[in-house]
Amino acid sequence: MTGLFISFEGVDGVGKTTQVERLRAYLEAHGRTVVVTREPGGTALGAAIRQMLLHGVNGSADIAPRAEALLFAADRAQHVAETIRPALERGEVVITDRYLDSSLAYQAGGRELTLKEIRDLSMWATNNLLPARTYLLDMDPAMSHNRLQHAEDRMESAGDDFQSRTRQAFLDLAAAEPDRFRVIDASQSIEQVWAAIEADIKTLLGSEDSKELA
């Protein structure tokens, strides 16, 4: 049995955590071993980087865009080497809450660095590892941020224009890679969002099983 790599993307507050846990339970009920992780912060090194990225250093929120991109890439490199690739090699399913596309959307879209710069950096950091499926939970950031039940972190407080650019960057990424992405309207109920994911994962698992039998 081969491993399967799945990522969830979207602006903050769209309900990724809820759907990640739904998918975990579904896959485990169908006999798959599942590793759930996140970016930034999926490793001990990543947790330290996450603290800097989301809350700044010594109370300062000022991290230069290129430094920010490098920190995300460092987190991702360690995440892939320590957590994701070993699990995939064991034949497990890896579900990550955010991956490369968040860097592309937030840094290239929100921070206005070039898409090629960020993509090349992330692909180098991960040795070209991409998910088999990416679920983009899409919602107007003005609506999704009303769902947040904690104080805004450094990324969440970047402003409406930043969040709108980020959302559009996610949608552009999905349009460019329709085979990998599935865009789901996250303004629907939790059950409706899950139904869309469940229908797609059944197809994806079927195609993976077919590859093993071929």
TrEMBL record:
GO terms for molecular function: ATP binding; dTMP kinase activity. It comes from the Bacteria. CDD domains: TMPK. One of its GO terms (biological process) is dUDP biosynthetic process. GO terms for cellular component: cytosol. Keywords: ATP-binding, Kinase, Nucleotide biosynthesis, Nucleotide-binding, Transferase. Its EC number is 2.7.4.9. Residues 8-197 form the Thymidylate kinase-like domain. It catalyses: dTMP + ATP = dTDP + ADP. ATP binds at G10, V11, D12, G13, V14, G15, K16, T17. It holds the Pfam family Thymidylate_kin. InterPro entries: P-loop_NTPase (IPR027417), Thymidylate_kin-like_dom (IPR039430), Thymidylate_kin_CS (IPR018095), Thymidylate_kinase (IPR018094). NCBIfam families: DTMP_kinase. Phosphorylation of dTMP to form dTDP in both de novo and salvage pathways of dTTP synthesis. Belongs to the thymidylate kinase family. HAMAP family: Thymidylate_kinase. This is Thymidylate kinase.
